[in-house]
Amino acid sequence: MSIPKTQKAVVFETNGGPLLYKDIPVPTPKSNEILINVKYSGVCHTDLHAWKGDWPLATKLPLVGGHEGAGVVVALGKDVKGWEIGDYAGVKWLNGSCLSCEYCQKSAESNCAEADLSGYTHDGSFQEYATADAIHAARIPKGTDLAEVSPILCAGITVYKALKTAGLEAGQWVAISGAAGGLGSLAVQYAKAMGYRVIAIDGGEEKGKFVKDLGAEYYVDFTKTKDVVKEIQTATNGGPHGVINVSVSEAAVNQSAQYVRPTGTVVLVGLPAGAKISAPIFDSVVKSINIRGSYVGNRADTAEAIDFFARGLIKCPIKIVGLSELQNIYELMEQGKILGRYVVDTSK
Ligand code: NAD
Ligand code: ZN
Description:
Elements: E1 6-12, E2 20-25, E3 33-42, H1 45-52, E4 63-64, E5 69-76, E6 88-91, E7 94-96, H2 102-105, E8 116-117, E9 129-133, E10 138-140, H3 146-149, H4 155-166, E11 173-177, H5 182-193, E12 197-202, H6 205-214, E13 218-221, H7 228-235, E14 242-245, H8 250-259, E15 265-268, H9 281-286, E16 290-293, H10 299-310, E17 318-322, H11 326-334, E18 341-345
Parallel strand pairs: 11-12, 11-14, 12-13, 14-15, 15-16, 17-18
Antiparallel strand pairs: 1-2, 1-4, 3-5, 3-9, 3-18, 5-6, 6-10, 7-8
């Protein structure tokens, strides 16, 4: 396989600065890395946060973003074991961790203080060739549709892990707040596949039809309903047993701590910049609710999330455009106009 010296990528030099679609060198894998010819990459709202630089965690600069990259292994670092040229591999958010701290020892790799992040502290998948740590890169079964699987590499893993974090039982209600977005549209389907009843929250009629087609039993339109909390509690006969917050809205998160069922679990996933959760202490105590953060997933969660997809239980609702269109996708995302996930074809 011949690997070119240069490639197309989208790069920014300052947070919020121009998104430059240009030629850059193809990176050389370090001894522990594989080189992946990224065919497709999902565009996550996290990529928009990274570009804007609105989180209290600095990005590397200049940066190639992207962390839902699906492609083919084209080169191996000298110490790499267990990968072959031609294997299908995924660039995911967690690209490295120390593997020896107390968190890594217990498989909480994403909580490692030395976590290396694709498309944030390590150049990611908005390029044709990306390096990835051989231990952390995702294994994708050969023959998988690489465009369709790409959103699983962050959105899928994250919502699958968040649903596990909610600790629900089959037949219980789970609310997905932000259900029509990239994470939400997969959360609805993983929740169904795991045996839960889904109440979906998002804005507008089109999004309502979209999430019902994906399997939600009930839809709450936050732009229309007079009282989100009351409507959800009524529809679920006392509140959902779990809530997966994947909106980028502080108000939506705070409402979830009110409508959750007594003894239920509110899972925080979406990361609105500068936001705080505020829940009434009296109600939280008397209802004995749990509020838990959930941050991507570990390697086992990755393999399991991909397996749900490979068995046909999850369909990624994607729209494919060229990598050169990234700026337009960010604009649509900012305006909340995306149904499901945009995926970029790195060759265009
Ligand atoms: P997205 O833009 O595709 O989806 C967000 C959805 O929230 C949209 O459909 C929007 O209409 C909806 N929404 C907005 N306001 C709402 C409200 N008040 N109530 C209900 N829904 C509302 O974004 P995404 O790619 O799905 O990412 C969502 C968030 O999750 C981002 O902040 C991202 O950074 C974060 N994220 C976190 C993790 C993690 O590990 N915790 C992983 C990936 C992404
Ligand atoms: Zn992501």
